[in-house]
Every structure is written in structure tokens, then in C-alpha cells.
Design a protein that fits this description.
Number of domains: 2
CATH class of the largest domain: Alpha Beta
Bound molecules: NADP nicotinamide-adenine-dinucleotide phosphate
CATH topology of the largest domain: Dihydrodipicolinate Reductase, domain 2
Strand content: 25-35%
Largest sheet: 8 strands, mixed
Distance between the termini: 44 Å
Number of helices: 9
Helix content: 25-40%
Shape: globular
Strand order of the largest sheet: 8-9-10-7-11-12-13-14
């Protein structure tokens, strides 16, 4: 299918690498504000359609699917324009800056009868799908606890989006959404109790941690941050064993430990791994679906609500 990119920043660059490995999926047009970065991006990736007006990109008859990859602070604003074109939209995570914004986007997508999905690419990796099957099979019994950390070190730079409140910066909303979504996926529900803390600078959480309690009794401990490298793993404690997933946000293997010993489940893929998310969107669009059964829209709204509660906790 033919895609149109809205935003040509860091994530657009990375996802392009996946498109280059997928001959049936092409990026045919791109939009960004600045002419200079638009031309540089399109030259680099040989993209013919070049726009500095959002409406023009959305209306390009060559474009079949829109990929919204501007900073999340402007997702809703850009979405309002894009949705009128009546084309399917993959919107980068987090979809909105709050549950209210996310809900608005979901409502508009439904009113226009279009496909919409939050870009939770972590959901579609072979190892993540294996984990979902493991939970459903109850082979290890019930899942009790999840511990997941998505932290990395990014030197403080007040010009960078991560550190700017006016650009929606902050660790929990930008990065912590992955460990949160992992816990919600394992327990199949959203937390009822949230206890969160953060180390902030200029009203932006540089590091954040949360303890979550789920209605069925599951507990989770999640961390995210731009200060301090972490192993970025997820540990899931089941009744009859444990699963450790290194690099859980783009996993290639899992280690399952039971009383019978240790088993390594290896499901490798080529970096960067965005192909699974792209395939899911195209599969849903081809099937005429308006949302992905693996990343439903209500889940995006509920994740945003859980994030809202964390930010309320420390504000
Ligand atoms: N899935 C993932 O692994 C992943 C990883 C990173 C980020 N993300 C998500 O992707 C989104 C974009 O992040 P990024 O790191 O790619 O951001 P970025 O590097 O700052 O790039 C933002 C892009 O949006 C454009 N843009 C258009 N209108 C804008 C406005 N009003 N304000 C600022 N920029 C505007 C910028 O245009 P100009 O070139 O004209 O400035 C630039 O092309 C975020 O929601 C983020 O959470 C996802």
C-alpha cells in the first residue's frame, strides 16, 4: 500500500528503514513544516510527493494510508485535518496528550468511518504475540506481577522535544507508555490504583516510576526515564514460572523459567522491527476493519487515562 508521512523527524527516519525492506509498502508522499527538512528527507528516501501543507498531503490521490508522526502535543490538531480526507491513520504513540484528547480522536475516526490505530509497535513483535498466547494458554497459571523498565540516558538538552513541556516532553507519557501497555496486556485490564512519582526539571518528568494495582489482583512496577541506562527488560511472575523478556519494547527472545529448568524462546527479526506494525495496519485496512483487534482504540483511551492519573499524582 502507499503511505503518506506527516512529520519527518526521528521516528519517521527509523520507520523508513522498515519500509525500505518491504517492497509492497511504499512511502509516496511526506509533509513537514520546514521546506528544508522536507526536501532533505524526501531526497534521502526518494519520496516524490512533497508538501508543507497538511491538507495537500491528505488529499494526494496517491496516498492510501496516513502516518501521523509529529510530536504528540500536536497530534489532535493535525488529526482534525487528516481525518477529513477519509483515509486510514496510524498515529504515533501516545495518541493524545490526555484521555480526553485520545477519546476525541477515536470519536472523530468513528464518525468518519476510518481505520485508526495508535503506533504501539511493541504489541506486534513475534515474542510479544508469543507472550499473549502463553498468558491465554495458562500454561504457567495466572500472572501475578509485572516489572518493566524503559529507561535510557539522553544528555539534558533544553532544545530537545523530550525535555520540553511545550512539545509534550516527559518520560512517562513518551516512554513509560510501553511498560504500562505491557502490564495492561498481560493482565488484560487497566489499573484501578496508581501510585506514581517523578524527578522533574522545568515541569517535565526526567525519570518516573509507578506502582499499579489491577482489578484482578495483578501488580505492576513500571519505570521510564531519560537519565540512566537500564537493561530495558520485563519480568512477568506467573504461578508456575517466570518469564524474562530482554529489550521488551523490541524483543527477539524470552527466557522462561519453571521448576523443570530454563527455556529460551528465540524469535529474531531484522532491526528496526517496524515491519510488524506496518503489516498489521495494512492487514486491517485490507480487511475493511476500523481498528486493530490487537491494539483496540478503547485500550488507547484507557492507557491515556492511566497516564493522566500518574501525572496528577506528582503534580
Ligand atoms: N514508536 C517509536 O518507537 C517512537 C519513537 C520516537 C518517537 N515516537 C513518537 O513519534 C512522534 C514524533 O516524535 P519524533 O521523535 O520523531 O519527533 P521529532 O524528531 O521532533 O520530529 C517531529 C516532526 O514533526 C514535524 N512537525 C510538524 N508540525 C510540528 C509542530 N507544530 N511542532 C513540532 N514539530 C512539528 C517536525 O517538522 P520540522 O522538520 O518542520 O520541524 C518534524 O518533522 C511522537 O509522538 C513520539 O512519541 C515514537
Amino acid at each position: 500500500m502507499k503511505w503518506g508521512f506527516v512529520g519527518t523527524g526521528r521516528i519517521a527516519e527509523r520507520i523508513m528503514e522498515a519500509f525500505k525492506q518491504m517492497p509492497a509498502s511504499t512511502v509516496t508522499a511526506a509533509y513537514t513544516r520546514r521546506e528544508e527538512s522536507l526536501q532533505a528527507f524526501c531526497d534521502r528516501w526518494q519520496i516524490p510527493g512533497r508538501y508543507t501543507a497538511l491538507e495537500a498531503l491528505a488529499a494526494d490521490p496517491e496516498v492510501e494510508i496516513l502516518y501521523l508522526a509529529t510530536p504528540h502535543i500536536v497530534h489532535l490538531e493535525h488529526f482534525r485535518t487528516l481525518v477529513r480526507a477519509g483515509k486510514p491513520i496510524l498515529c504515533e504513540k501516545p495518541m493524545g496528550m490526555s484521555a480526553q484528547e485520545t477519546e476525541k480522536m477515536v470519536r472523530m475516526a468513528r464518525e468518519h468511518g476510518i481505520f485508526l490505530m495508535e503506533g504501539m509497535w511493541t504489541r506486534f513483535f513475534p515474542i510479544t504475540r508469543w507472550l499473549r498466547r502463553l498468558v491465554a494458554s495458562e500454561e504457567l497459571g495466572r500472572a501475578y506481577n509485572v516489572m518493566a523498565d524503559f529507561s535510557y540516558h539522553s544528555p539534558y538538552d533544553p532544545a530537545l522535544r523530550f525535555f520540553r513541556r511545550d512539545l509534550g516532553g516527559g518520560a512517562m507519557r513518551g516512554a513509560g507508555i510501553y511498560p504500562l501497555a505491557m502490564a495492561a496486556m498481560v493482565f488484560g485490564e487497566m489499573p484501578v490504583d496508581v501510585c506514581a512519582m517523578a524527578q522533574q526539571k522545568n515541569d517535565v518528568d526526567l525519570r518516573s516510576a509507578a506502582l499499579l494495582r489491577f482489578p484482578g489482583g495483578g501488580l505492576a512496577q513500571i519505570m521510564s526515564g531519560f537519565q540512566g541506562e537500564s537493561v530495558q527488560g520485563a519480568n512477568i511472575a506467573f504461578e508456575k514460572g517466570a518469564v524474562w523478556i530482554p529489550d521488551f519494547w523490541h524483543p527477539q527472545r524470552a527466557i522462561m523459567r519453571t521448576q523443570h529448568g530454563e527455556r529460551v524462546i528465540s524469535l529474531p527479526f531484522d532491526f528496526p522491527g517496524f515491519q510488524f506494525e506496518i503489516e498489521e495496519v495494512e492487514r486491517c485496512v485490507a480487511a475493511g476493519l476500523q481498528e486493530s483487534p490487537e491494539m483496540p482504540l478503547q485500550e488507547s483511551v484507557d492507557l491515556a487515562a492511566a497516564l493522566d492519573r500518574m501525572y496528577e499524582n506528582w503534580q
